[in-house]
Amino acid sequence: MSLKINLNTAALTAHRVLSSTDQGLSKTIERLSSGFRINSAADDPAGLVISEKLRAQVSGLEQAIRNASDAVNMVRTAEAALNEVSRLLRSMRDLAVHAANTGANDQAAVQADQAQIANAIASLNKIAAETMFGQKKLLDGSAGVKANVIGNKVVSADFSYLSGVSDGDQVTIQVTSAATKAVLYSKAFTDEDDTIGKAGTFYINGVGISYSTNDTVAVLRAAINAVSNETGVVAVLTTAGIIDFVSRNYGHEASIAITNGGDILDGVVSAAAIGQDAAARVQINGVDVSDALWTSGNGLILKDSLGNQIVLTEAGGTATGNLGAQFQLDVGTLVFQVGAYAGQTRELNIPSVYAHDLGTDAIPGENVSTIDLLTAEGAQNAILILDAAIRQISTIRASLGATQKNVFESSINSLTIAKENIAASESTIRDADMASEVMELTRNQILEQAGVAMLAQANMTPQTLLKLLQ
């Protein structure tokens, strides 16, 4: 046995162990007081990197949920205003139906209807101009893709379902199939003064037209045109003595069916005809906007499978050929960040609901702002225009509702679940296991007490050497 004063190995060992225990105790107290297993990079460098990434994602998801909630509130604001627009259009349609009752209405009644129409149009334009979410206008066309007409072969366009376009892009149109009206021909009479020679009744689209033996071709043509609002068919004379039965509108919905027409159709009892829709290729910078051909429309109206729409003029849609650039786009598409990372966005377009932008696909060149109930034809046209406008607003509302339910509210649900799971993963890495840490605290406290006691004993050992000097 070697006894030394200068070197107390037992004390050094006890001090080293006590220091290690004290350090462990400090870490345990830090973890218990903070609740985190990782309080600095030294605790777990790799775990810290993973934890910080997950924390950033959780925080981003929380903000994305708030963003989606804001988007839902914006859509609800727009939809509530559109509900009022629908109500106004329905009331305007009632006025148009009333004005069309020319057999009972006097001029004062029709003028009163027209005055109410003008008031409703002013209300529509006010809603379009003043519906806002914060400082952002929603229904004036600035929250979507606005098509500014720069050509002379189109009336208007609705590109609400267009995406991936830039401000200033020009839309070109190449008509590949021309729109046609339904056409049937009468038998060849000598001229307009020729008499029918027989008496009877034939039917055009279910509406009966009677004629007598002495009626001339001109009289018969006038009788057909007198009920054209009911039949949708007009009679014109392009060849002497032959009546052309022509549908008023273009496209597959413009049909003519003549029955019991043996005296008029040169022995043919029944005949039918149907119009053809225009079809076209729509491009931006030589690239198809959506479908290779827009064939889902009716008559002079071009539509693609997404719901975008272009209304052609009669000159633009009744002949094939390249029409060139017809629109310049003003893009105000609403973009919503509904994810934690770049590029996780959703787009929404809300078209204009100004009166001059509604009902444009019913009668070329006319819209809600041009409604005139002062004539019988104007009242009939107003019904068609308002029916188209109501369909248009209903389509916009349905699109907004689908976006709210299937995009934003669905995103909120999925983002909330993702946040929960990712936060749980981050907690597994970063949070302290409190039970384990309490156990470690107790262990370190006991070791610290034992270490202090043993250090005291080790320090007493050199004192025994003093007895050798006595």
Explain this structure.
With 470 residues, this protein is α+β, with helices and mostly antiparallel strands. The protein has a domain at 182-248: 2-Layer Sandwich (Alpha-Beta Plaits), CATH 3.30.70. The chain is built from eight helices and 19 strands. The radius of gyration is 41 Å and the shape is rod-shaped.
The third-level CATH topology of the domain at 182-248 is Alpha-Beta Plaits
Q: Percent of residues in beta strands?
A: 15-25%
The CATH class assignment of the domain at 182-248 is Alpha Beta
Strand order of the largest sheet: 3-17-5-13-14
Helix proportion of residues, in percent?
Answer: 40-55%
Based on the coordinates given, report the CATH architecture of the domain at 182-248: 2-Layer Sandwich
Number of helices: 8
The biggest sheet, with number of strands, parallel, antiparallel or mixed sense and barrel status, is: 5 strands, antiparallel
Shape descriptor:
rod-shaped
Condensed summary:
The chain is built from 8 helices and 19 strands.
What topology does this entry show?
Layout: H1 9-34, H2 45-99, H3 107-130, E1 132-133, E2 136-137, E3 145-149, E4 154-158, E5 170-177, E6 181-185, E7 200-204, E8 207-211, H4 217-226, H5 228-231, E9 233-239, E10 242-250, E11 255-259, E12 271-274, E13 279-284, E14 287-288, E15 301-303, E16 309-312, H6 314-317, E17 321-331, E18 334-337, E19 345-348, H7 376-430, H8 434-460
Antiparallel strand pairs: 1-2, 3-17, 4-16, 5-13, 5-17, 6-10, 7-8, 7-11, 9-10, 11-12, 13-14, 15-16, 18-19
Helix pairs in contact: 1-8, 2-3, 2-7
